[in-house]
UniProtKB/TrEMBL annotation:
GO terms for biological process: heme transport; iris morphogenesis; melanocyte proliferation; neuromast hair cell development; otolith formation; transmembrane transport. Its main location: membrane. GO terms for molecular function: ABC-type heme transporter activity; ATP binding; ATP hydrolysis activity; heme binding. It is found in: Cell membrane; Early endosome membrane; Endoplasmic reticulum membrane; Endosome membrane. It comes from Oryzias latipes (Japanese rice fish). This is ATP-binding cassette sub-family B member 6. The lineage of its organism: Eukaryota, Metazoa, Chordata, Craniata, Vertebrata.
């Protein structure tokens, strides 16, 4: 039978706080549950009233499903039940039950019951204002106090009234229950910083987006909404992308270097422990009057350890420098792999994406992203993990060789430091992200302005461009100031915490020295060790900020990696089996954007060796047909076949190997003319390059240049005229020697005589090849086997030149207007006579044109 004795044990009144080198259990188990219940009731009531007054019930579809939230609820219930179970166990096994044990069990159940209720309230209702990351302040404060209270038990490490000795069954049970409370409260607090069961964005924004009432207010370079989320959002996905770069697969040498660097990292941790110990031994040896031999030996070992450690925490020591040197090869490997994979991925994206990209943004994202991966790996592996290891080792060391007070001081200081660092750094994330956006805007304006240098000059807009650039810089500097100011505030907070911890520990250590419990060397050991520990801890904030900055810088690069290829090869796609070169369009429908069709039920056939011309007004879909044959896009309806094979079911590389294109807008690489022509077939010899130039009627022009074929064409070929660029593009296609040729206004930038020469060359080249021509000058496609007149995405007319003229339809009207425009421009009878001799006029309009 259980007897309820007095409130506290015999000879241990509640007024006595310290008993036998530890906190009185009666005092502790009265104070802690009382404080927890007070916080739960007071802050919880405010929390509920606040959510009831300023919140709204969330729709179920906006509440995220989260296993971590279920875990939070389960842990909360467990923490309430463990206290009740501990009281029941103690009542069943003990002859007498103190009153504080009953109060402890009841108050704990009530306090954690309130916490459970608050979790449910926050899950079901949302504040209309913008929420911050994490749970409400009431829940976070409750969990923080509960976790801190369990850490306070360490103070009683040497007290026989506590369970640390594990000498009885009751102590073992109490220790197990304490482990549940300690781990549960800690997990709830750290998980609560993320709040997995709550929406990641303001609830009203989710509603507005769902109703399509709010448009995206901030767009990234990829056209996506830029949200003020934590940089740890999608952490698992980011880590999965980083894992291949952490371990160099397939390279045994680099893998051995990684293992060696990790081994040296462990050596540095051991050195950091022994340096202050040997410094203490030196002081004790000097004060104790030890022999010169023993003092000299200790000093030599200490100096050797300092040499290996370097200044502070080994940042520039011998071991650290060796590790840094060995890591260079691994870092280069990582940088190369990231850049090559991203470059290949960008080339695999569709033409639609490249037409909509912002080159300045993409380049800045690539530069920052690739460099941030190296920084991220270096900071995590060689800075964050070692710092955490140093903190854990120091706490264990101080508790073991000093007493629990020193371990508690170090732990509280470290926990407070890391917690505030993370919270403040997360808060200032939005300023860093905004600064990146302004930086991208500045670079984009600069790049666009310089690329359009001629346009700026044409419109005398130099001052306008300079003012726009200056305005972008001013906006960037405003964001930069916010970033730097918040950084200064963070540094000051860290300094206050570090100074407070150092002061408390030094005063306590000095007190024990004056009491004769410690030696002078112990004070030196504490001061040396704690300063050595604070050095990397002080850098920990910087490391965390740099990791966060790296994640921010990598966000744009990750989005580039996430861009899907619009045009993909099928899983079992085979190579195109080219036979004769028959091209078929069968009921093709296509649109660039939903709701606006460019091509509607387009069907035609180009027989092997034939030339089909596409004519029509601008925007009718002529160039789109060329792009679809080259499979820059996939059709939405119908299919395109070459020799009976659907081009959507063959590999793109095999298709494009048989197709050559001369685009309307020719862009050249900033290289020599020879290399730009050779781009058609990289393995071509110089003689073959020159023969292609002759076929394109540009060889003689090239030879008039001082450097000949070694002439640099400049950015996008701006040093050449439009006609010269177009002839280089034609030469490049001739050198490729494709079986199917697509000409998109291939001679639009040429004068009449050069156009005739090129037409003669193209006629020879295309004689045995399937050719599709987009033409604006109708005079260039008179000899086409079939002419298709495209109007509003449909084939309005088809036939040969003479047949279409006799129909008197759209083609005849276009022909008449071009002839009239040509006569008006020439202003002489000579051109009219030339036109007559070439028989380019319709019979019905000959007299009028003459």
């Amino acid at each position: 039978m259980v007897v309820l004795q007095s409130y506290c044990e015999v000879n241990s009144p509640i007024s006595i706080t310290w008993v036998d080198e530890g906190i009185s259990p009666c005092f502790y188990f009265t104070l802690v549950p009382t404080i927890l219940l007070t916080i739960a009731i007071f802050l919880g009531t405010i929390h509920c009233v606040f959510y009831q007054k300023y919140g709204t019930t969330m729709e179920p579809k906006f509440i995220p499903r989260s296993r971590l939230y279920g875990f939070q609820l389960a842990v909360t219930v467990l923490l309430g039940l463990q206290s009740l179970g501990g009281t029941v166990y103690r009542a069943a096994t003990a002859a007498e039950l103190p009153g504080y044990a009953v109060l402890n069990g009841c108050f704990y159940v009530l306090a954690w019951g309130w916490a459970f209720a608050l979790l449910r309230v926050e899950r079901r209702r949302a504040l209309l204002m913008d929420r911050t990351r994490g749970h409400s302040g009431a829940l976070l404060a409750f969990w923080a106090v509960a976790f801190a209270a369990e850490n306070l038990a360490f103070v009683s490490w040497y007290s026989p009234h506590w369970w640390w000795g594990l000498d009885t069954t009751e102590h073992q049970v109490q220790f197990a229950l304490w482990l549940i409370r300690y781990s549960g409260a800690g997990l709830l607090f750290f998980i609560g910083l993320r709040a997995p069961g709550l929406p990641r964005r303001p609830y009203m924004l989710l509603i507005n987006e769902d109703e399509r009432d709010v448009e995206a207010s901030a767009q990234s370079l990829l056209g996506r909404t830029e949200e003020n989320l934590s940089t740890w959002q999608g952490f698992r996905k980011k880590v999965r992308l980083l894992v291949p770069y952490m371990w160099p697969r397939g390279n045994v040498f680099l893998q051995m270097l990684v293992l060696l660097c990790l081994g040296l990292l462990g050596v540095e941790r051991a050195i950091n422990v022994f340096v202050p110990i040997y410094y203490k031994n030196i002081v004790n040896a000097l004060t104790d009057g030890s022999s010169w031999r023993s003092v000299a030996t200790i000093v030599c070992i200490y100096v050797l350890l300092k040499l290996l450690q370097g200044g502070g925490a080994g940042s520039s020591g011998f071991v650290s420098n060796i590790r840094t040197f060995l890591w260079i090869r691994v870092q280069q490997f990582t940088n190369r792999v990231v850049e090559v994979q991203l470059f290949a991925h960008l080339h695999s994206l569709s033409l639609r994406w490249h037409l909509g990209r912002k080159t300045g943004d993409v380049l800045r994202s690539i530069d920052r992203g690739t460099s941030s991966i190296n920084s991220l790996l270096s900071y995590i592996v060689f800075s964050i993990f070692p710092t955490i290891a140093d903190i854990v080792i120091s706490i264990i060391y101080f508790i073991t060789y000093f007493n629990a007070w020193f371990g508690l001081i170090v732990f509280c200081c470290m926990a407070l430091y890391l917690t505030l660092t993370i919270i403040i750094t997360e808060w200032r994330t939005k300023y860093r992200r905004e600064m990146n956006q302004m930086d991208n805007l500045t670079k984009t304006r600069a790049v666009d302005s310089l690329l359009n240098f001629e346009t700026v000059k044409y419109y005398n807009a130099e001052n306008y461009e300079v003012s726009r650039f200056e305005d972008a810089i001013l906006k960037y500097q405003v964001s930069e100031w916010k970033t730097q100011a918040s950084l200064a505030m963070l540094n000051q907070t860290q300094n206050v915490i570090i100074g407070s911890g150092l002061l408390a520990g030094s005063l306590l250590c000095a007190y024990f020295v004056t009491e004769g419990k410690f030696q002078v060397g112990d004070f030196v050991l504490f001061g040396t060790y704690i300063i050595q520990l604070y050095t990397p801890l002080n850098w920990f904030g910087t490391y965390y900020r740099m990791i966060q900055t790296s994640f921010i810088d990598m966000e744009s690069m990750f989005k580039l990696f996430e861009e899907d290829q619009e045009v993909n090869d099928e899983v079992n796609a085979g190579n195109l089996l080219f036979k004769l070169g028959k091209v078929e369009f069968d009921g093709v429908y296509f649109s660039y954007t939903n709701g606006k069709e460019i091509l509607r039920d387009v069907s035609f056939t180009v027989l092997p060796g034939q030339t089909v011309a596409l004519v029509g007004p601008s925007g009718s879909g002529k160039s789109t047909i060329i792009r679809l044959v080259f499979r820059f896009y996939d059709v939405q309806g119908g299919c395109i076949r070459i020799d009976g094979q659907d081009i959507a079911k063959v590999k793109q590389t095999s298709l494009r190997a048989h197709v050559g294109v001369v685009p309307q807008d020719t862009v050249l690489f900033n290289d020599t003319i020879r290399e730009n022509i050779r781009y058609g077939r990289i393995s071509a010899s110089d003689q073959e390059v020159e023969e292609a130039a002759m076929a394109a009627d540009i060889h003689d022009k090239i030879m008039t240049f001082p450097d000949g074929y070694d002439t640099q064409v400049g950015e996008r070929g701006l040093k050449l005229s439009g006609g010269e660029k177009q002839r280089v593009a034609i030469a490049r296609t001739i050198l490729k020697a494709p079986q199917i040729i697509l000409l998109d206004e291939a001679t639009s930038a040429l004068d009449t005589q050069t156009e005739r020469n090129i037409q003669a060359s193209l006629t020879k080249v295309c004689a045995t090849r399937t050719t599709i021509v987009v033409a604006h000058r109708l005079s260039t496609i008179i000899g086409a086997d079939q002419i298709l007149v495209i109007s509003e995405g449909r084939i309005a007319e088809r036939g040969r030149h003479e047949e279409l003229l006799l129909k008197g339809g759209l083609y005849a009207d276009m022909w008449l207007k071009q002839q009239q425009a040509q006569d008006a421009d020439s202003g002489s009878d000579t051109e009219a006579k030339d036109c007559t001799s070439e028989k380019l006029q319709p019979p019905s309009t000959t007299s009028g044109n003459l």
